[in-house]
Amino acid sequence: MRRQYIVNLITLIAALFFSPLTLASTGGDQLDLTTHAVGYIAIIVFVFAYILVMSEEVIHLRKSKPVLVAAGVIWGMIGWVYMQHGMSHEAEQAFRHNLLEYAELLLFLLVAMTYINAMEERMLFDSLRSWMVNKGFSLRSLFWLTGVLAFFISPVADNLTTALLMCAVIMKVGGDNKKFIAMACINVVVAANAGGAFSPFGDITTLMVWQKGILGFSEFFALLVPSAINFLVPAIIMSIFIANEKPQANDEQVELKRGAFVVVALFLVTIVMAVTAHSLLGMPPVLGMMTGLGLLQFFGYYLRITLHKSLERKRALAQEANDQKRLSYLGSVVPFDVFNRVAKAEWDTLLFFYGVVVCVGGLGFIGYLSLVSHAMYTQWDVTYANIAVGILSAIVDNIPVMFAVLTMNPEMSHGQWLLVTLTAGVGGSLLSIGSAAGVALMGQARGIYTFGAHLKWAPAIALGYIASILVHLWLNSHLF
């Protein structure tokens, strides 16, 4: 009896998973698995993995682990179902497409992190921290300074790179003040996402809308004021709770290592090449980033082969001035190695991105993203649908959400397309896991800027989200 029961149970599970009666084709290349057992299990696996990610600071499990496993489980189930229907090639191609998306993001991030690590090794952030502290800036002033810089740099340098750069400064200035670091990181994430929303280069989603030809280059700047409101509302609220005290000045004089400003110049050149690769050549931005990494490697080679002569010259000057401190410092100088900078990249964050991109890609391939977007744009008022896109992008990555909207291509006015561009760009600020900038900073400020720390200020960020939408509906009413 028990053996028969087990056989019946296995037969039932097999019927649920692989019966063609539960599948519907969405076309020649894809099966609709949204009402199939595989689809339901994929949702459960994804939600459970995200719960573990959100509990990172409590259970001390690195966020990459659950999403890596979830990605394997989801695509493993998809592959099995498609193999049963003789469509394994279609599933393989879909996975390769997601893998390509991740590869571009991985290399882009890796180059940005390498440059930031190189600037840190050349003592730039220590020098900047010393300058800020000795200038007498209070913590509240530093909170505003880093936020405003993030808002105005991200339209050019993209929100992810900007957030990483500002976080490095915050970590140096904040020192042991974890509360300040956490709140300043939240402010930078909101500012970088808001700043990226009014520029075609500021975020991947704005690039997608611009590349699709839906909005012209200059039309994005209509979102400048709504984006500023999105940043300012939570920043004003949070700044009230920042102590107006000054970090202790110690008159520390930080000596930049040789080539520090050249590294900064190369980083700027790399960003320009990334933007140019896309806007002028029609190539992925990662092409310019990887070329920039090559330039950094060449400069590292130059620093290594000229190190001996440079040290000899500086040692002679120090001996002549009888500067024992400088002589001691010169004795600790080691050659610059770019691969040491690559090794110090936040690999947990990079692997987390893999898991998220592949998991969400799997859910999209199953049919859930198109199902949700179709329901929103055919059954809801289009304004409410576009507002919901922003909320959805706080939970699911905004790239596949925007991709689903662009794929459906609903009939909307330019004002509505600007609205969905705004909400998809800034909606990710509602949660730390809702944007690439937030996820990257969770790795960079590990244990300080966390999901829970960000969640405490979600109501203030939500007020900024609502205010930015209302300002856009009022200020750009002629575009609807």
Please give the largest β-sheet: 2 strands, antiparallel
Terminal CA distance reads: 68 Å
Query: Roughly what is the average pLDDT, rounded to an integer?
Result: 80
Structural class: mainly alpha
Helix and strand string, N-terminal first?
HEEHHHHHHHHHHHHHHHHHHHHHHH
User: Unreliable segments (pLDDT under 50, ≥5 consecutive)?
Assistant: 1-27, 327-332
Strand order of the largest sheet: 1-2
Compute the number of helices: 24
Radius of gyration equals 25 Å
Helical proportion, percent range: over 70%
Shape: globular
Tell how many strands the DSSP assignment holds: 2
Strand content: under 5%
Short key terms for the protein model shown above:
single chain; 24 helices; sodium; membrane; antiport; transmembrane helix; 480 residues
Report on the structure:
The chain is mainly α and 480 residues long. The protein contains 24 helices and two strands. The protein has helices at residues 2-18, 37-54, 56-59, 64-84, 88-121, 124-134, 139-157, 159-174, 178-197, 204-212, 224-239, 260-279, 286-305, 307-321, 324-330, 338-343, 347-366, 368-379, 382-395, 398-408, 414-426, 436-444, 451-455, 458-475; strands spanning 24-25, 31-32. The chain has a two-stranded antiparallel sheet with strand order 1-2. Helix 2 runs antiparallel to helix 4. The chain is globular, with a radius of gyration of 25 Å. It holds the Pfam family CitMHS. Residues 50-425 form the Citrate transporter-like domain.
